[in-house]
Design a protein that fits this description.
The complex is a heterodimer of chains A (about 220) and B (about 260).
Chain A lengths: L4 H40 L4 H16 L2 H11 L8 H28 L2 H9 L4 H31 L11 H12 L2 H33 L1
Helix pairs in contact in A: 1-4, 1-6, 1-7, 1-8, 2-4, 3-4, 4-6, 6-8, 7-8
Chain B lengths: L9 E10 L2 E11 L4 E5 L6 H8 L7 E6 L2 E5 L11 H8 L2 E4 L11 H11 L5 H14 L15 H13 L5 E5 L7 H17 L3 E5 L3 H7 L2 E6 L2 E6 L1 H6 L4 H10 L3
Parallel strand pairs in B: 3-8, 3-9, 6-7, 7-8
Antiparallel strand pairs in B: 1-2, 1-4, 4-5, 9-10
Chain lengths: ~220, ~260
């Protein structure tokens, strides 16, 4: 087998355009997961059993089923219910929903790591519940769990090729259609792997930096 | 309640609190007159810290009522629902009360100054400028000029506790609760914190409850000493009497145990 470097150079722009979509899906999915995860953890911590128990059930259900099945379900069933998000929108929604259930647990760990004295000081200063969460508890909880959130960001990034299965032209989708006509699978998939690696290495470094930052901070 | 002169700063009426099987406060009734400085002594587990935490509404009262300047701040489960108070009322009344904790409980993600200004901005609705100006003044009063931007982790225990005092004072409470504020400090840092409280007692008319093991400090600052055990008052009175010539044998043996002073 000969490696066709010329082809590799020619197909690179196509793959990079796909990489932009990959990034969009990752960042969009992560933003959604961060917000949904917060909503889930607040519902989970509700004093009301009729709120916290169904929330726990939903989280178990989403965590207990494969992301790929969720993607297919949302992609084919949501339009039947009149909800049209488009392929990328559906992908972002599925990634965000799936990962939010893990991120809710990360937040929970972070919230529980905030010492009781912080809540007591907030009471003593007569903070409202909202201010106690917003100004005292969540900032500390999030700083503690930033490295874990970073790990989930990398994990989600590496899950984005699944979106190719619902017709999103991200990196894998772009590569598959290029390889389908050129039969240059080696060049295409090697390049895709290298681009993934090039993007996840800095993210990994960021996570390690956050861990070091936290150690210094604590 | 038209005669406000007669209204105590804090009034405990039939207050009880238990943790599981342990009774930490047992049918406790007591008035703290406005401007009074009370040192609360007693062995650990005597209920003295719980007393402060109940006033601050950090713990829930099982039975009885606590009033602050004539307005209820905490009601026990035995109180009929018509007389229960809303969270909103509690927050309103609670603004009159400030508390300093054994473990400081500063906000680690904020600078010293932010620790002091956060509540006045969020709760009292002060402008940032106004709160910062007052905050700097308070930090100066507790001897921390120049430390405004330092995060708590860069301050010594004594400095952190003084920030905590400034933070409580920033809400301009009429009552201050000090919960064993020097117990977590290295011995050489105790003096600076006690001195700040001494100054505060001298230059303000605030009502103060001080849970402490520092007998000498209690004698200096307090005009009443309350000795508690098992959630009940063993004896109370002026410091020279309770600390100098206690009536009760239990008080005498406690004072002997905590050593010369």
């Amino acid at each position: 087998m000969r490696v066709d470097l010329d082809y590799a150079v020619r197909v690179l722009p196509t793959l990079l355009r796909g990489a932009v979509t990959t990034l969009q899906a990752t960042l969009g999915g992560m933003a959604l997961a961060l917000v949904l995860g917060l909503a889930f953890v607040l519902l989970l911590r509700s004093q009301n059993k009729w709120v916290s128990r169904p929330t726990r059930a939903v989280l178990e259900f989403v965590r207990g089923t494969p992301l790929l099945i969720q993607l297919f379900f949302l992609f084919y069933v949501l339009p039947e219910w009149g909800i049209r998000l488009g392929a990328l929108g559906t992908g972002i929604f599925a990634l965000g929903l799936h990962y939010s259930t893990y991120i809710a647990e990360v937040y929970r760990a972070g919230i529980e790591s905030v010492p009781k004295g912080q809540w007591e000081a907030s009471t003593a200063l007569s903070f409202s519940r909202v201010d106690t969460w917003r100004r005292v508890v969540l900032p500390q909880a999030v700083i503690t769990v930033l490295p874990m959130l970073g790990n989930y960001l990398v994990a989600m990034f590496k899950d984005t090729p699944l979106l190719a299965t619902i017709t999103v032209i991200e990196m894998l989708g772009a590569g598959l259609s290029a390889a389908a006509s050129s039969y240059r699978y080696f060049e295409v998939f090697t390049l895709i792997g290298l681009i993934f690696l090039a993007m996840s290495l800095p993210a990994g470094a960021l996570v390690r930096w956050l861990e070091a930052f936290n150690k210094r901070y604590a | 309640m038209t005669d406000s002169a007669g209204v105590p700063a804090i009034r405990f009426t039939g207050c009880s609190k238990r943790f599981g099987e342990t009774v930490v406060l047992d049918d406790f009734t007591w008035d703290v007159p406005v401007g009074r400085r009370v040192a609360i002594l007693g062995p650990s587990g005597s209920g003295k810290t719980t007393l402060l935490r109940l006033v601050m509404t950090i713990e829930r009262l099982d039975a009885g009522v606590i009033e602050v300047f004539g307005r209820p701040i905490a009601t026990g489960r035995d109180v009929p629902s018509s007389r229960q108070i809303s969270e909103r009322q509690v927050r309103e009344v609670r603004r009159d009360v400030g508390m300093v904790f054994q473990q400081f409980n500063l906000f680690p993600h904020m600078s010293a100054l932010q620790n002091v200004t956060e509540a006045p901005i969020r709760v009292l609705g002060k402008s940032k400028e106004e709160a910062a100006e007052h905050g700097r003044e308070l930090l100066r009063q507790v001897g921390l000029q120049g430390k405004e931007d330092a995060p708590p982790r860069q301050l010594s225990g004594g400095q952190q506790q003084r920030v905590a005092i400034a933070r409580a004072l920033a809400m301009e409470p009429r009552i201050m609760l000090f919960d064993e504020v020097t117990s977590a400090l290295d011995p050489e840092l105790v003096g600076e914190v006690l001195e700040v409280i001494r100054q505060l007692a001298e230059h303000s008319s605030m009502t103060m409850l001080l849970v402490t093991h520092e007998i000498g400090f209690a004698r200096d600052v307090a005009d009443e000493v309350l000795f508690m055990e098992h959630g009940r008052v063993v004896e109370s009175g002026p410091p020279e009497q309770v600390l100098g010539s206690p009536r009760e044998e239990r008080t005498r043996s406690f004072l002997r145990a905590v050593g010369p002073h």
